[in-house]
Amino acid sequence: MGLILVQHDTDSPALYGAVAAAVAVSRNCGFMHIAAHFDTACHADAEQHVVATGGLAASGLCWFERLSGKPVSPPATVGEVLDAARLADVVVPVHPAFMAQPDAARMLAESANEVINVVEREDHFIDGETDVVLAWRDRFGRVDLKQAEAAHAAAVKIALVGAESDHFGVYPAALASLADAADSLSAAVDIDFIDPVDFRDADAGKTLQPYAGILLPGGSDMKNVAGQTAVAAFALDNAVPIVGLCLGMQTMATAVAWKAFGRENANLAEADPDADIKTFRAMAGEKTADGGLLPEHRTGDQMTQPMPGTRLAALIGADTSIRCNHRFRLNPELVEAMQMRGLRVAARGVDGAVVDAIEVIDHPFYIGMQGHPELSSRTGAPHPLIVAFLQAALIRQSPAV
């Protein structure tokens, strides 16, 4: 029984806990983590991994779930780690730049049975003392225990909205889920990153027309909303397959609302509190049909109910669990008018009070989920929504397929 520290001096929030997770899985050890702290002014989504039992943790902890198939536990105290290590082998990541408790690394080191110092060499993570390869990272940023094989098929071009530095260095799960889907279809993908902050409507055709599909990710940075919604509007008007995750679903629904209420009038309340028509409103203080209060913050694994006859229901089946992290819901007062513009409610949660997914009828693929399906994706077990999106993109690129 003992404590194994994996010390990784990285400035990438996306790698917080990644190599330690690989060590824990390869050695069949327990995995625990100490509370982390990030500069959210620089890395807004660095702490957006949703813990299954509720709450948020470092985004890089998605690698433990992907590699082990087990949920990440909430952050532990130093005392809890030491107690656990007396009963079993436990691996703990140590990231000097990101430890919330300044003396936690020292306290753990005093009781450690082994310390592994990680060295990065291109796509390798090496034990600096033994030169043993601990993990690999492929061109999609996925951390794995083995080196990925290169795909040789003709590539489908996908636009992933967001800064490249964010998807590789801060919140890696969306990019990884897309690569998982590509692997399952034996499809090569070429991914370009479209920064929503720099996106201009006037250049939409030139910027987006080359792509067979668009993925709109989640995120907490409201400066991305205007660009994301404009991208969604282009996909809606030009029959480009598009999938939205959490905030991506919200901006996709708002693009439909622009058709119903006018582009200058409708927006998310979180992004524009002064918008005349608020497409998504805070759940705090709002009531369900039976008079109960909606949760102020819906987080963790939550049940969702796909609507019979929808495209989403055909993909994911009946009631299922989805990892959630949201405080806002689609404004129920707007749904009827948006349905007149082609929107269809594809899933509901919280006893029907929250729209959990939307889709657009008579569009090749326009589906968004309020939750985070990317957090359920694994190498060899992609999420069916992402797979279906990529299939639609393949058809667009090669209509004869």
Describe the model:
The chain is of the alpha/beta class and 401 residues long. It is 27% helix and 25% strand. The strands form five sheets. A nine-stranded mixed beta sheet has the order 11-10-12-13-22-21-20-17-18, sandwiched between helices. The longest helix is centred in the middle third of the chain and has 15 residues, at 247-261. The protein is globular, with a radius of gyration of 21 Å. The mean pLDDT is 94.
Separation, N- and C-terminal Cα atoms: 55 Å
Helical content stands at 25-40%
Q: What is the strand tally?
A: 22
Q: Sheet with the most strands?
A: 9 strands, mixed
Q: For the CA atoms, what is the radius of gyration?
A: 21 Å
Summed over residues and divided by their number, the pLDDT gives a mean of 94
Strand order of the largest sheet: 11-10-12-13-22-21-20-17-18
Q: What proportion of the residues form beta strands (DSSP E)?
A: 25-35%
> Count of helical segments?
12
Features:
12 helices; 7-stranded mixed beta sheet; 27% helix; 9-stranded mixed beta sheet; alpha/beta; 401 residues
Any chance you could write out the topology, listing elements then pairs?
Elements: E1 3-7, H1 18-27, E2 30-31, E3 49-50, E4 56-57, H2 62-68, H3 78-85, E5 90-94, H4 104-109, E6 114-121, E7 124-127, E8 133-137, E9 143-144, E10 155-161, H5 164-169, H6 173-184, E11 188-194, H7 204-208, E12 213-216, H8 225-238, E13 242-245, H9 247-261, E14 266-267, E15 277-278, E16 280-282, E17 298-306, H10 311-316, E18 320-326, E19 328-330, H11 335-339, E20 343-349, E21 354-360, E22 366-369, H12 384-397
Parallel strand pairs: 1-5, 1-6, 2-5, 10-11, 10-12, 12-13, 13-22, 14-15
Antiparallel strand pairs: 3-4, 6-7, 7-8, 8-9, 16-19, 17-18, 17-20, 20-21, 21-22
